[in-house]
Fold:
Amino acid sequence: MDKAAINEKVDAIVAKIGATAEAVIPILQDIQQAFNYLPEEALERVCQITAITPAQVAGISTFYSQFRHHSAGKHIIRVCTGTACHVKGSGLVYDAFRREMKLDNNSYTDAVGIFTLEQVACLGCCTLAPVVKIDEVTFGHVQPENVGEILRDFLIREKNIKTRENTSKTASGARQGEIRIGLGSCCVASGSSDVKSELERTLAETRINVEVKQVGCVGICNQVPILEIVKPGENPAFYAHIQPEEVKEVILSHFKPSGQINRLKTKVTGMFEEILVDGAPKSFRKYLTEQRDTPLTRFLGPQVNIATETRGEVKPCDIEAYRQAGGFGALRKSLTAMTPQEVVDEIKKSGLRGRGGAGFPTGNKWQMVKNQSPKEKYIICNGDEGDPGAFMDRMLLESYPFRIIEGMLIAGFATGATHGLFYIRAEYPLAVKRIREALIICEKEGILGKNIMASEFSFDIRIFEGAGAFVCGEETALIASVEGKRGIPSLRPPYPAVKGLHGKPTLINNTETFSLISWIIRHGSDAFSKIGTPGSKGTKVFALAGKINRGGLIEIPMGFTIRKIVEEIGGGIPGDKKFKAVQVGGPSGGCLPASLADLPVDYEALTEAGAMMGSGGLIVLDETDCMVDIAHYFLSFTQNQSCGKCTFCRVGTRRMLDLLEKIRSGLGTPGDLEALEKLAISVRTGSLCGLGKTAPNPVLSTLRYFREEYEEHIHGHCPSGKCLPIVGYQITDACIGCTKCAQRCPSEAIAFKPYEIHTINPEKCIKCDICRQICPVKAVIIR
Amino acid sequence: MMKLTIDYIPLEVKEGTTLMQAAAMAGIKIPSMCYLEELPNHPSCMVCMVKDLSRNRFLPSCSYLAEEGMNILTHSPEIRGFRKEALELLLSDHAGDCDAPCQRSCPASMDIPGMNRLIAAGRFEEALSRIREEIAIPLVLGYICPAPCENACHRSSIDGPVSICLLKRFTAQDKLRRGHNLLPMVGLSGKKVAIVGSGPAGLSAAFYLLRSGHTCVIYDQHLLPGGMLRYKIPENRLPRKALDAEIQCIRQMGAIFTMDHPIDKLVFHQELCRDYDAVILATGNEEKQILEDFGLEVDEHGVKVSLTHFTTSAPRIFACGNMIRKRQMAVRSAAQGKAAAISANHFLMTGKPLGSKHLFNSSFGRLQKEEFEDYLMESGSVKRVEPENGSFGGFTREEAIREAGRCMHCDCRKQVTCKLRQYAGEYGTHQKHFAGPSRKKITKLFRQDLVVYEPEKCIRCGLCVQITQMAGEDLGLTYIGRGFDVRIGIPFHQSFDEALKKTASACVKACPTGALSGKEDPGTDTHGSY
Structure:
């Protein structure tokens, strides 16, 4: 592209976004969107025509991991490296892509420029782990041996989309009912949009008149894609794991086509039974709501829905439906019947504490902001959910945009703020889309803007998309990033409540916190504080994933025990494996052993046990998980996400990682554990912000509860065979000589010997795990 | 106003006072590297951490504001340990040499790069003075020293080490130059020192004691001075002319040689101990019995001495050279002779001996192939000069200048002002404590003749970034990347010349380490203990 063309594009972007220094991140995002990377000429042009300096551009574009400085392939492959994906082998998947794409050491784009491979902290689809996203298409349960297939599948799909025509015929006749389909990211990733297209096609073909309602996340991620059929006079029926080709049959079993008769009902019903007995995972299961003890009721039954009220019933951006379910009632109540101080007091009385992790009393934070004299104040919704293994914020933003907006509006009214901002991480495009849509609707409806609901209160909200930096979840770093700076946390005090965005008082609450506000105002603080423990009130949303039968998004009352979550809601550990630990709170949290399963979910209880509520990622680990590997995993994450300011975090976490690497490679020496522990404590003490202060937690908690596992590594042995540097693959006598492994081995480490027992050449083996996964008789073992 | 205590001293300070400022009011100094008063506070180094006992927490004192009721402790073993850790973490990622490896490996810690630069500039007299700050007998050592410095020279891995030893000899070879600046100062102090033995240790001790204005009488059992230099080393390795010339210098400074005068028990006690203010023993290999007769404690190596103060078990008696450890290199004996002289001088002036101080020295190990290019930028790629007259003949003037120009300036230009080095020494750090599995590749960037930037010495405090930003440099410096890999760089891959148009000297001054230094900064050139 020539310079003039580049300049023209950049000029248009700047004209759209603005030319202030603060606009740098959105400008760079748009440039990347336009060129698929940041051409240096474009950046120079930005500096020419805006207040943005070269130093700023260089600093910003190298800080946030979203930005690329080299041209990428036509399609971007993002391999999720979130916790759930990690424990399910995403590292091996990544390696498999590298091999498949024939990438050498420092390249990320294949030779022909079709695909670029990237790692992403977490796509928030933990229940489908390991997850890979190619452009906008998500693939779940990816295994190393099928990456080639995925790439081919993607390319074919690409072609088809271009040629596929839209079938939309108007249905006729009376409306027969409603079909609800979840369209959260997880649902889409497991194929719900295909199901939806098929649904629409079928309805058009058959001219059945039912309303197809796209509801937000249903939370039952382990059962998606899921269809709910609501028909007057019938109990709602759920179809789990439904595939596009099965849609027609299901619809026809409930509704009559208008036109020719085409009933397959008997046949279809017969098929259900077959499938239910067979339990074939590839096909759908039907659950009726009147059935008592289905996996569905066990999953949903113990939950209490406050943040997730109306789960699976309401279309995310349907403001009428939101209103009918009581939406904006709390805002109206606040504006008409309460003073700002009364609202703050109500929140204080509710005992609500920040759901972002540290658990600061929300009412007190509001009071601090309210007490500030400046007229200009800001409300920020922190949706920079960066914890690998957490997707609560994403689900809430995608599914309940109005509820969060209402929470922010109430906060704005209570604290005297007039500007609001959604800070949403870059990896959540659907959340951004939904919130954007909801904001436009609110403006039209007079719920945002001047004189909201005809009151004196005016408030506006804009969206800021994060650019890929976990540390920006820290409130001072978040503010820096909104101001167009590198996301470097600053020393507190002054707190943002006193001196925040643009130096003005700023209230920053987590997405989940805001989504609880309207319920509290509507039902009163007492109703909320009745739920929970003395110190932790209300409910908490968790992303339950990992080695669990029924993963998904759950909202439970505080005080619930970990055992209840894992065993009752989650249905225990799959495959006869033993429950070993839960990782709570992501990279800031810790690993709690199964022996502490009766610990209640409570801020203090978790902290005392060496974990942390964190933002609510809950990853279940079984006996095949290595705790040293888990500690190493989290520390690599935080180490990589450190902003690089404080010595202890920048260098200290790296040195901790070096030590872990050494231990993991079987090269540890007896003093290493003590050295690691000592350094961990210093890093905690000597770091300014939450990232550095909590980064050592996964190491300290595993050292506390699983020290003997570390010691085994020091003796050169990884008990669960996860630490690749010290494990080796072997084939046992159980080998039947089927040659599958030899055929699939990417490094020719297994010689092709039909009907003979195969062997693995350790010199050539790259430990990709494909042979073990593919072996039909489980003859491949890790030693 | 608010009340707090710092190190148990009650203070009242204005709102907005940092803990460091408050401590300064009480006369308490807190170390810090990333703090500079006129710039926005930016705690990053964490060396300034103090403890708030009232809430049992550590706080960065350079930026944390005083609060009512704080009970701050600025120094304690715990805080010291913490600062030490911060420094060791910084050092683990600090790929740079303080002293050049040649100087570090020289037993006398001679300022070799300084000498090389002076020779290359044709300033031979100054070069000799520089040598004599550490070495009293450069001409002799220029012949016989096994030159451990040359083994360590970074250039040895490129195209052979700089001929340090020959350069040193060249400097001291000229008779006129050698005699220069050796004015007799004897008697100024009114103190008298007896030196027993006239080998490298004794001669060296005499040289430095004479320079301090003490009267020196050298005793030796042989007819002629020089000890092992004369009686053990063959003429074809050390021309006697050279030895005599060196001794002549010391004589010229006022040394009194009492030859053919063996010291026995009686002489020792009745003459030396009685008539002199101090005695320095440097007799080389001595029989155990005689030492015991002198009333000195002996160990398996020889006379038992303090290896920092060179004091023996008897008061006023110092010892150095082979009598404290056998078969040492002559250069080590000479170094000990100097150290004993310094200690004795201090004793004579104050009543207390002085320990030799070892400065902290960062080092990165071997220079790697991909680093050669940057290192050669300061020296060009001249091949090692072989003297036309053979190595015994030594360098001509032109050869010396050419060879000295091969020196790559491995010594840090900020070694005197570097805060990292200063604190690393004060806090007794070990650079390898947190050593990572590999070190970063070393690079050097030059801003014409003004500034040298060595990113691997940077501690990422960002003072330079702030300075360039506040001064409105067109380009300036910026942070590149984040986390452990963050570095200070120049936007848009521009040249270093473009980055610092206005702020070069301000940045150099603010940089707490040797990452940014003035190209002509003194480096070792202000260094020297004499």
Notes: The longest helix of chain A spans residues 647-664. The first strand of chain A starts at residue 75 and ends at 80. Residues 164-171, 259-283 of chain A have pLDDT under 50 and may be disordered.
